[in-house]
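Reopening this one. Same input as before:
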Amino acid sequence: MVTTRLDEIDRKILAELQADGRMTNVELAKRVGISAPPCLRRVRTLEESGYITGYHAEVNSRELGFEVQVFAMVGLDSQAETELRAFEDRCREWPLVRECHMLNGEVDFILKCVAPDLSSFQQFLTGELLTTPNVASVKTSLVIRGAKDEPGVPFDVLEERMNRTA
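Same output, byte for byte:
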C-alpha cells in the first residue's frame, strides 16, 4: 500500500488540508501536533511527492449563474487508445465540461457539465458534443439536486485500514 510511506502526521496534514486548504501553516501545525517549520517541510514534501496536487476554492455555481448541471454518458464508435485520448483532449477544451471520466461497461465516458441554462447546454450538446468525431451516442441526465459532494478521500476509512494492518 502506497500510504505506508506516510506516517500518522502526514495523514493528519492531508486530512486537515483537505477539509480546509486555507488554514495557515501555524494553525495546521497546531492541529497536527508539531511545530510550524517541520509542518511546512512536510507539506512541501507532500506537494512534491504528488499527494497534494493543488488548492482551490469551492465556488457556488448557482450563485454565479450556472443553474444547470448535467451528467452526459458518452458512447464511442471506437475504443482504440488514440480515439480515447482524442476524446479526452477534446473534453479538456470544452469549458462546460467540468469532469470527464472514462468508464468500464456500457458507457465509455461520463461528463459532468454545467451551464447557465438549458438552452446553453442544448447548444453545447447539439453543436459540440454530438458532432465530435467518434461519438456514437450521448445520454443525458439533468441534476435535480445534490445530496453529497465530498472531495478527496475519506481519511477515517484510511486510518481504519492502517490500524488493521499495523
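So the earlier flakiness isn't reproducible anymore. For the record, DSSP finds six helices and four strands in the chain.
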